[in-house]
Amino acid sequence: MPSDQTSRATTNKRLSATTVQALPASVAPPSYDRSRVTPGIVHLGVGAFHRAHQAAYVDDCLTAGETDWGIIGVSLRSPDTRDALAPQDGLYTLAVRSSGEEELRVIGSIGSMLVAPEDPGAVLAALSDPRTRIVTLTITEKAYLRAAGGGLDAAHPDIVHDLANPQRPRTAHGFLTEALARRRAAGTPPFTVLCCDNLPANGATLHRLLVEFAELRDGSPDANSSARLAGHIADEVAFPSSMVDRIVPATTDADRARIAVELGAEDAWPVMTEPFRQWVIEDNFPAGRPSWEKFGVTMVGDVAPFEDMKLRLLNGAHSGIAYLGLLSGHATVDRAFADPAIRQFVDALWAEAIPTLPEDAGLDTSAYTAELTERFSNTALAHRTAQIANDGSQKLPQRIVASAVECMEAGTEFVHLTLVIAAWIAACAARGKTLPEGHFTDPLDASLTALLSQQLPANETVTAVFDLAGFAGDHAERQTLIELVAVHLVHLRRDGPTLAFAALGI
């Protein structure tokens, strides 16, 4: 959250539609007339990643003259982003940082911001507006409210609330379903739902969850009747999958102060990012879409191979770097990656994960990991290991566990993959001891804290964690996976990563 004291000693001006015209020549402002932009996209979950990624791509399209694709941003929980951007007319600085330089650009694609808990009716009105043809989401894995088996958590209090109060929803499920119901009743074609979160087959996953929610709302499992909302969502609404990639560290007060000097004006919430960006999208947009492909977006028929490569090589390595980095005393990714033992570990992790990727998809894993090596070494980003460590119970299934299960089935080695799971457990247990209390968080924290405080033997601990998080489901070799993780946990408990690495020959 931005500090109230940000850069006031530097300047009293605020970035806005008025002051943006007086920025230094080194800062690129929006080159289009924002007053001529009309909304075509509603985005749920306006965090730093969206503002560094999708909003920047849309800004490119607006610059090229596609002025009917402005963004209405929606915060499902906190008013922080709205409170920071509203006085700035939605404008903010995107700082693209490499180890040697920083390039500043002001993004203007977010035309307005809504806060769902304050006015759910306004959010539903925006979603129901015929001009809205795409709804994008970056709400993080935990906000999809999945049960341990992967289906909708129908007992979650917010789901229960939304089923009872469809006019005042709290969840993405409730907002999307009610808006689609209103559009159907009004004869308005449905919008396309474009998930941009790190979920496996994210479009198909959200499609399934929304149909499950609609079935509960219909009051019957019969989704085949043409009169039922679940059937409409199942058959008539497009949910293309996508893969997104850009490293976006948390903005600090030092970043805000530095940006204020460069702008000659305050920006309450600039976004820091790296030069690299990638977006791969399945091209299924019945209601139309921007010409994203003109600006580097890859439009494909099947996003799965790209998604798996990113989840298993970038995100999987990130999780390993985060937990092992935290246990080794490294606060940022670049410092952890510079640790020779962690660097060697990541290479070995990639060697285990790469064979799980499809051979016939045209993936260049050598070039991809070489690029990741450069990105992880970027000293300008200061990407905090604690930031990456959040929500491990939600992230590890697709980043690590899926690769380990496929290795088991193929009979190939996966001892480095299992160390990541053990490191997550050890890092969770270290909070309040060798790591600060609340240094990172997880949706299962209450249960994890109670479990880990018992200091059970490693095998019992890992079994209980797997049960709690639903890792590996009912796979026949689940116990083998548990035993391998437990061996690593024993090493981590005795002498931290040093012994764990030594056992792997690192």
TrEMBL record:
<dbReference type="InterPro" id="IPR013118">
    <property type="entry name" value="Mannitol_DH_C"/>
</dbReference>
<dbReference type="InterPro" id="IPR036291">
    <property type="entry name" value="NAD(P)-bd_dom_sf"/>
</dbReference>
<dbReference type="Pfam" id="PF08125">
    <property type="entry name" value="Mannitol_dh_C"/>
</dbReference>
<keyword id="KW-0520">NAD</keyword>
<dbReference type="InterPro" id="IPR013328">
    <property type="entry name" value="6PGD_dom2"/>
</dbReference>
<dbReference type="InterPro" id="IPR023027">
    <property type="entry name" value="Mannitol_DH_CS"/>
</dbReference>
<dbReference type="Pfam" id="PF01232">
    <property type="entry name" value="Mannitol_dh"/>
</dbReference>
<feature type="domain" description="Mannitol dehydrogenase N-terminal">
    <location>
        <begin position="40"/>
        <end position="294"/>
    </location>
</feature>
<dbReference type="InterPro" id="IPR008927">
    <property type="entry name" value="6-PGluconate_DH-like_C_sf"/>
</dbReference>
<dbReference type="InterPro" id="IPR013131">
    <property type="entry name" value="Mannitol_DH_N"/>
</dbReference>
<protein>
    <submittedName>
        <fullName>Mannitol dehydrogenase family protein</fullName>
    </submittedName>
</protein>
<dbReference type="InterPro" id="IPR050988">
    <property type="entry name" value="Mannitol_DH/Oxidoreductase"/>
</dbReference>
<dbReference type="InterPro" id="IPR000669">
    <property type="entry name" value="Mannitol_DH"/>
</dbReference>
<feature type="domain" description="Mannitol dehydrogenase C-terminal">
    <location>
        <begin position="302"/>
        <end position="487"/>
    </location>
</feature>
<keyword id="KW-0560">Oxidoreductase</keyword>
